[in-house]
Amino acid sequence: MKTYLLSFFVLIGILGVSNSTVDISKKSFKAPKGYVYIPSGKMAGKFNLTVNSFFMSDHEVTNKEYNAFLSDLKKQNRLEDYAKAQRTTTNWKSVENSAPMEKLYHSHKSYAKFPVVNISKEAAWLYCKWKNEKYKDHKNFTVNFRLPVEFEWVYAAQSGSDVSYGWGKNELKNKKGQYYANFEHNDKKEGLLMAGSKSYAANGFGLYNMSGNVAEFTSSLKTIKGGSWIDKLEALEIHQKNDYEETGSPYVGFRPVITVMMKKK
User: Fold this and answer.
1) What backbone torsions phi and psi does residue 241 show, to the nearest 5 degrees?
2) Is the pTM of this model over 0.85?
3) Hey, is 241 helix, strand or coil?
4) What is the spatial distance between Cα 168 and Cα 238, in angstroms, rounded to a whole number?
5) Are the beta carbons of 201 and 180 closer than 8 angstroms?
6) Which distant-in-sequence residues (6+ apart) come within 8 Å of 58 by Cβ?
7) What residues does 146 pair with on adjacent strands?
8) For 162-195, what is each residue's pLDDT tens digit?
9) Is 206 exposed, middle or buried (0-12, 13-18, 19+ CB in 10 A)?
């Protein structure tokens, strides 16, 4: 994956997206299971930007969750959306010894809690749209599931500290010598394939695998963040961003965020 530094001017250009939302307190809206509250605050480091609060999936969307989405599309006879949301399993061919993954990864129960991959960005947006449909009749709030804007992803990955990696520390290993993330490194006991969506330690906001495991779509241009199990350490740095294949990749998944607005009475 090609990496390059996050531009300060890109952040400035999209700042207004966050400031246009209403800042919702943690107690005023009960988020769906698996979503954690990201409090408002200033982005750490040299970017003096304020980000309004939102909710974010604490894990990368799993095969189980995505299969429920596909099943519901099929049940509703939304065949056009169903076709767009399908996974491109032939992309596994870019991975060494991939035949078992191509056959089993998206459907076998052993991988149910692993991150969905090999989907297009359009498919990720369709999933968010589908989640919105499930919450459209919320009594007090307008609920919007979507992909995060790049600076929101960065802010969530920092979890309140000026750190280089999405697990909330600059160190690579814990006291037991275990890595904080799933990525390619010289110790071949790890970094051979993606892990479950809630593997490794969560960061200070309670988010798992913000760096490593699978890279994640954002709503910003052709930008994915966080690096993957196939990437080296540089790609895992919070302020790096990567290109992606339009047709999906075995290295890229996603996690939605939720913005919430109080309905007018």
Assistant:
1) -140, 160
2) yes
3) strand
4) 10
5) yes
6) 34, 35, 36, 198, 202, 206, 207, 208
7) 257
8) 999 999 999 999 999 999 999 988 766 555 688 9
9) middle
Where exactly are the structural domains of the chain?
3-262
DSSP, res 245: -
Q: Encoding tokens for residue 27?
A: 């107690």
Identify each DSSP E strand in the chain by its residue range.
3-5, 35-38, 41-42, 50-51, 54-57, 141-146, 215-217, 224-225, 240-242, 252-253, 257-262
Distances in whole angstroms, Cα of residue 62 to Cα of each of 65, 68, 191: 5, 10, 19
Q: Is 187 exposed, middle or buried (0-12, 13-18, 19+ CB in 10 A)?
A: exposed
User: DSSP string spanning 11-79?
Assistant: HHHHHHHHHTS----TTTS-PPTTEEEE--EEPSSS---EE--EEEESSPPBHHHHHHHHHHHHHTT-H
> What distance in Å separates the CA atoms of residue 192 and residue 222, rounded to the nearest whole number?
26
Q: What is the CATH number of domain 3-262?
A: 3.90.1580.10
Sequence-distant (≥ 6) Cβ neighbours of residue 6 within 8 angstroms = 150, 154, 239, 240, 241
β-partners of residue 5 are: 240
Q: How far is CA 170 from the centre of its chain?
A: 20
CA distance linking residue 184 with residue 163, whole number of Å: 20
> Tokens standing for 1?
């994956």
Beta pairing class for 54-57 and 35-38? antiparallel
Kindly state the tokens that stand for 208: 């798992």
* Euclidean distance between CA atoms 153 and 155, whole angstroms: 5
pLDDT band at 21 (very low <50, low <70, confident <90, very high): very low
- Judged by average pLDDT, the poorest of 13-17, 61-65, 188-192, 197-201 is 13-17
CA dist 34 → 41, 235, 257 (Å): 22, 26, 11
